[in-house]
Amino acid sequence: MRLDKLLANEGFGSRKDVKKIIKQGSVLVNGNVEKDVSKHVDPKQSEVVVNGEAIEYQEFVYVMLNKPKGVISATEDPKHKCVTDLLDSFYNKFNLFPVGRLDKDTEGLMLLTNDGDLAHRLTSPKHKVNKVYEATISGVVTDEDVQAFREGVTLEDGYLTKPAILEVDDTTDEHSWVTVTIREGKFHQIKRMFKARHHEVRFLKRLKMGALSLDYELALGEYRELSEVELEQLKG
C-alpha cells in the first residue's frame, strides 16, 4: 500500500495533509525517515511511526452491536440515527457497514464490518445461514401456525417464504412469546409472515446470526469487537 494512502486510511488527514507530514520527515518506516509519499509498504509487516506514534494496522474489523429501537440499519441518513452513529469515531476510518438489516423498531444482534466477503456469505440465500429471533405476538399462536411456518408462508404479494421454525415458548389469551428461525431476509419478513397468519408482531429481537450469538452483557446501544473464537466460529 502507498505510504500516503496508509496514513490517510489511519486518520492522519487527507491525502494532501499526509503528503505534507511525510515530506516534513515526520514518518519513519522500519526505523528510517521516509519522505517518498509513493513509497509502498506492507502495513502488516512494516513498522510505520508518525510523530512518534506507531501505526497498528487492522484491515478488517468486526463489531457486535445490540441494536436499540429507533435506529436504522444504514451508514448514513439525513433524518434518522444510523447504527454506525452509535460507534466511537475511532471506527470511522474503517468504513463499517451493517451485515443485513433489522427494522427500525427491531432490537438485537447486529454485526458491523468492512469484510465484504464475510458479509456476503452471511446474507446470501445460497449459504442458508440461520437467523434466530424472539418475538411477542398478538393472540394465541397455534399448532397450525407452527405447521404453516414449517411449510413456508405465502405473503401478501404472493411470495412463498422458505420453511421456517416457529417455537411457542409461552402463551396467554392475549399474547404469545415465540422463537423464530429463518434463513431469509425479506423486507419485514417475520412481521409479514405473522400478518399472513392473522397475528401482529408486538416485539422483535434478533438473538443469533449463524454461529454468532448476542452477548447479553451488552445493553441496548452498546457494542464490542468480536473475540477470535467468535470470528473463527462465524467464518466456519
From TrEMBL:
Protein family per UniProt: Belongs to the pseudouridine synthase RsuA family.
Enzyme Commission number(s): 5.4.99.-
Presence of the UniProt keyword Signal in the record: no
Keywords recorded for this protein, A-Z: Isomerase, RNA-binding
SUPFAM superfamilies assigned: Alpha-L RNA-binding motif, Pseudouridine synthase
Lineage: Bacteria, Bacillati, Bacillota, Bacilli, Bacillales
NCBIfam families with a match to the protein in the record: pseudouridine synthase
CDD domains documented for this protein: PseudoU_synth_RsuA, S4
Protein name, per record: Pseudouridine synthase
Pfam families named in the record: PseudoU_synth_2, S4
Residue stretches making up the RNA-binding S4 domain: 1-59
Organism of this sequence: Alkalibacillus silvisoli
Transit peptide as UniProt keyword: no
Cross-referenced SMART domains: S4
Alphabetized PROSITE patterns for the sequence: PSI_RSU, S4
Gene3D superfamilies with a match to the protein in the record: Alpha-L RNA-binding motif, Pseudouridine synthase I, catalytic domain, N-terminal subdomain, RNA-binding S4 domain
InterPro entries associated with the record: PsdUridine_s_RsuA/RluB/E/F_cat, PsdUridine_synth_cat_dom_sf, PsdUridine_synth_RsuA/RluA, PsdUridine_synth_RsuA/RluB/E/F, PsdUridine_synth_RsuA/RluB_CS, RsuA_PseudoU_synthase, S4_RNA-bd, S4_RNA-bd_sf
